[in-house]
Amino acid sequence: MRQKYILPSVFTLNLVIKCFLKDNKWKEALDLFDEAVELGVPNVLTYNILLNWFSQVGRVKEARELWDRMDEMGVKPSVASYNSMLLGHCKQGDMDLAATLYTEMSKRGLNPNVVTFTTLMDGYIRSKDFDKAHDLVETMRNLGITCNEYTFNTLINGLCMSGRMSEVSNMLRKFMDEGFTPTSMTFNSIINGYIKAGMMSSALSTYQQMLKNGTSPTIITYTSFIHGYCKNYCSDLAVKMLNEVKRKGLGLDIAAYNALIVAFSKEGNMSGARKLFDDLLKAGLKPNAAIYNSLITGYKNLYKMESAIELHEQMVEEGISCDLATYTTLIDGLLKVGNVNFALELYSDMVAKGIFPDDVTFTALTHGFFRNGDIERAQKILDDMEEKDVRPNVIIYNMLINGYFREGKLQEAFRLHDKMLERGIVPDGASTVEAFIQGNLKEMVLGG
């Protein structure tokens, strides 16, 4: 810019910076800004554009550096400047710094506006401090600032997120008395809150109120109901919602399809689950690891490991990375049908890919080897856990202790029992105790 002796107007500069940021080219935007600063072109709006973008995307460090630089250059921040910084700190959950900035505004003679308060409310809600968020409403009123639609929705959503559903109706009625007209966002927040609280009838009542008010349900409305019905094992009602979505020409997202597939899989209805899988492909959606894992789990629960393995192979072909859940489910299923070699092959493949087994994986392996009468391999799993500093659970110890008792290896059983106690793992009842009783009786009988 300087080499060509071009001195852009601040309007042009701001426009170009916005274009860079829109394309996520923030480094290029900063380079241009640095050159412009040397030429004395930027104004407070230039800073605000950058501050807002950095705060929106969570780059609070860069926003703070720019804020300090703004002060060094003698550029006085505006209310919009403070609002951007508040947004960044609130998104990060740093409410102490946000509160300091808010206080600083008044000292500089800047009057906070509805955006300031709504941003702070959202921050307190994110930090699970709804009461502080609600207290700001009174502060706004004292300052003569009117709540807008976003403020009301933020508070209602906050109440729902806090699980305080018994207070929602009164708050909504109070806001409506003040002139607020509920939007689809309002109803969606309330419906989702009721569903998360397991209050499906209240969610349905809110849905009816939504229709009565002439507010059209959105895909978010239907997705919430689908998740709720699936969670409550009402897949038939979830399918009704799915059909309603199709009838209205709306499209579900991957998460909604996954909820339905999980519900069908839990019911053992794998044909229904596969139909949904085909539907999402037809809808142009790309299945992710969660979708495949849900189907694989469904087939595993029915001991249909051939179908589960086919899906695993399909994942690999599609370039979808198998995660720990994929491998653990497949290993568990293969061991349950007695295919030990393939299970070990997958275990080796998992470790080779740098996927670290957890206690669930180790428990599946131990249980699988134990079921197949291979206590030596089961013991090796326990040894591997200790080497990898993974704490074995009481289930693993119980299985091995029982196994050693069955084989008459009482010394090994007692050694493991002592080791379990040394590690602070408390026996959880019948299995371990019964094993010891049976072992002691056997020893007495043999000794007698």
UniProtKB/TrEMBL annotation:
It comes from the Eukaryota. PPR repeats lie at residues 43-77, 78-112, 113-147, 148-182, 183-217, 218-252, 253-287, 288-322, 323-357, 358-392, 393-427. The keyword Transit peptide applies. Keywords: Repeat, Transit peptide. Pfam families: PPR, PPR_2, PPR_3. PANTHER family: MITOCHONDRIAL GROUP I INTRON SPLICING FACTOR CCM1, PENTACOTRIPEPTIDE-REPEAT REGION OF PRORP DOMAIN-CONTAINING PROTEIN. NCBIfam families: PPR. Belongs to the PPR family. P subfamily. This is Pentatricopeptide repeat-containing protein, mitochondrial.
